[in-house]
Amino acid sequence: TQLLEQSPQFLSIQEGENLTVYCNSSSVFSSLQWYRQEPGEGPVLLVTVVTGGEVKKLKRLTFQFGDARKDSSLHITAAQPGDTGLYLCAGRFTGYSTLTFGKGTMLLVSP
Amino acid sequence: NAGVTQTPKFQVLKTGQSMTLQCAQDMNHEYMSWYRQDPGMGLRLIHYSVGAGITDQGEVPNGYNVSRSTTEDFPLRLLSAAPSQTSVYFCASSFSTRDTQYFGPGTRLTVL
Questions:
Q1: Residue pLDDT, tens place only, B4-30
Q2: pLDDT, tens digit, for every residue of B56-92?
Q3: Computed over its alpha carbons, how large is the radius of gyration of chain B?
Q4: Cβ A43–B43 below 8 Å, yes or no?
């Protein structure tokens, strides 16, 4: 079983602060995805990264894929209460067709 | 398009009862999958299907059966429910294993 570690598990911050969530493994990903999930709903895809060193931006969210394709990070600038939710990373390991999900980071942004 | 629909939204079972969780998609997606989500555990793959008539096991398949007779539907069957199957179940679909997966709203199952 391929393992995917996500940290931190919980994050409680004030509006306007910056934060970073990490996702890493000892194995190489062929691609990695970040999802956001709100209470009572299914996860929604934010971004997919496939190339080592790749950086993608989605408004105030910046996603990086490690050069060796074993890790990724999600950075949120000037967090807002609307960013509150569960953030999940999910990787497709080289040679596998299915996704492996991390345990998630629960983010709470207070006004 | 309705996307991915799941029924029921909530269900309470007694130990040993059987039931089927329904999942349907109207996007003509070939790939469909079932996940369970438990607190602090993320999403774990139960079963998946790459097309009608083809199914395969995921990470946690024990206690669950699936079939895929049509492209649109992918039901998940619990033959004899156990308290360990208390969870939130999500169905997802995509054009292929490498495309964006679209998730349903989930079914919250409690087994007493």
A1: 999 999 999 999 999 999 999 999 999
A2: 999 999 999 999 999 999 999 999 999 999 999 999 9
A3: 13
A4: yes
C-beta separation of A30 from A50 below 8 A: yes
| Chain B residues within 8 A of A100 when measuring between CB atoms | 45, 59
* Cα–Cα distance list, B94 to A48, A52, A73, A99 (Å): 14, 24, 25, 12
Contact A15, A110 (CB under 8 A): yes
What does the alpha-carbon distance between residue B54 and residue A58 come to, in Å, rounded to a whole number?
A: 36
Q: Are residues B42 and A48, on separate chains, in Cβ contact within 8 Å?
A: no
Interface probe with A: pick from B35, B41, B43, most Cβ of A within 10 Å: B43
